[in-house]
């Protein structure tokens, strides 16, 4: 099912603010991933995927240094280089069990020679992502990113029950537990999206009129017996 125009706008706005806004940089806090996990499990949610993502803008000189450092520091990883539509993508990836890591250097396709360094970790196993976040994430992060570069966290899964039922029970339980202030809502027959601010999550993402630091997307499952969810801090960085 394709996202509605309103949902696409929310995702696009989030990416624009994240990538280009100078005021979006804050201390990374990967503990948010574990907080989301525990709170959703208290509401009997079934988590299927955990994602951690961070990005940083580079100039051409910085890009070359980072590319060399990636090859030196991650010598056992798989490296690829692609070019499409005047954009270059240099990738380093590595998988262990049900956890996958990927670094990417992506060109903007502009003459100014701007690049982005992306680091993404995706896992479908809770024990493995917990161990990784405790022992390895900070080490890899500190090797390639400034200390203030923001970390985005996201979980995906499902709740038992219809969308209407989940909104009145599990969703309300999460919002009340976080004492979250609702900021932007998109409500459709089979979809619900909320952007909010909660003091339970460190620092907000500055917007023109307010701050936000958590997003929830709920969508009716095709079977009708479950409701799929995506929850991210400070924003969801994938389509939902």
Automatic annotation (TrEMBL):
It comes from Bacillus kandeliae. The lineage of its organism: Bacteria, Bacillati, Bacillota, Bacilli, Bacillales. Gene3D superfamilies: YwmB-like. Pfam families: DUF1779. InterPro entries: DUF1779, YwmB-like_sf. This is YwmB family TATA-box binding protein.
